[in-house]
Every structure is written in C-alpha cells, then in structure tokens.
Predict the 3D structure of the following.
Amino acid sequence: MLNTYTPIIFQYEYMQSSSAQLDIVDAMKETSKKGLQRIAKKIKQEFNNPKHTFTQKSAFNMLVLEIEELYKQQTVDLIVMGTKGASGIKRVLLGSNAIHVIKNAKCPIMVVPSDFHFESPLEMLFPTDLEIDFQKKQLQPVIEIASAYHARIHVLHVSNGQKLTAEQETNRKTLEKQLKKVAHLFHIERHKNIPKAIAEFQTKSRINLLVMVNNKHSFFENLFFQPVIKQIGFHLNIPLWVIPTKA
C-alpha cells in the first residue's frame, strides 16, 4: 500500500533553512501514515483473507517516481489504483495521477472507478488495432484471470473499412493462438469512432473488465491521453487493465 506526498511548492534550498516547511512535511508524513493505517484496518475488517499480507509505504516523492523505484526493486508485479477522474469535468476519462502512472508504468496497471462495485470479470473486452506483435508475457495474466473466472474475452477491432494489412493479419493469428485455451470471440466494427464503438460494445455485452495494451503512438494514446473525450461523453465505469507493450 503506497501513498506519496509532496508540498505544493518544494525548493530544496528553501527546505534546508525553513523550519516552517519542515513542519509542513512532518505533518503531511503523519497524515499519510495515518491514512494508510486507516485503510489497512478497513481492509482487514471488511475483506479479511489469511492469504493476503499487507505492507505500507509512505514516501516523500512523486507518485510515478516512487512506483518506478519499487519496480526496480522487483517489489511490484501489478499496480492497482482508484480514479475519480477530474473533479467537475465529467467527460474527462481518467484523473491526472492515473494518466501519469499509465504512461510511465513498466508493469500492468488496473484502474478502478470510484463508484464501481466488484463484479466477477465474466465478459472481458479487449480492443486492439492489431498493430502489436502480441507476446505471451503480455497476455498471460489476462489468460489466467479469464481461466480462473471461466470468462470470455471479446477482441474488438474497429476498422476504417479497409482490409487488414498483412502485418495485422499476422498479429491477429498470433493473438488467436495465444488465446486458444480460453473462450474468446473476434469482433470487427466498421466505420465507427473508436471510443463510441468501445462504449456501445461495453454496454451491449455487459462487459465487466476492459483490457488494453498501451502501444505507444497507437489509438490507445489517442483514446486515453486527450484532456477531453469530445462529442460522445465516453467515460470509464468499469475497471481498466492496461498492459505495457514491453510487459
């Protein structure tokens, strides 16, 4: 369990000589520790499981930098974080912390909306532009979850009307091979806006979990890293599991 904290304005030279600033940092550290302890207590009371163990870390650091340090120490296999989006802007898909972590994380990350209540991931949606040479290491965690819950994976490709390129067809066959041990279906939506296609499919098929590979310079970045998703009001209401290209 990780919480990071930094003062709004932080200047090293000023911190060296300012007892007031040091007092602020001490207060933030105490608040951080107490917050983690409160959450740990709540988890153990409401979701007690002897298979789970918890450690707490309160760090004076930027969130992305601290996560990267933990990853280097081989502490992290999966990042799980909640998101409320940007307050007052309902059409913003993810909050800034989630965006920064997704863009920089070197391991899979699961983002859970604040108003989501747990559902077994029986129907998983996997949108892809088929521009990725899918590796077993990328998909193995997804396959394990699908196997554990006897889930079905819906692979969704949004087409501009053109046929798949030779590279896309090769990647599709690779993906088919990787998913052969779990229930899965391939879907092609033609001539549709990508966010709209995902939102409509998600609603129509009662999707419980959205899975995507964060392929740099792909439709993933165009979809999620714009400040506002225009025109259609696409918003996240189920968990999003993001797998880095080099997971």
About this structure: Confidence is low (pLDDT under 50) at residues 86-92, 227-233.
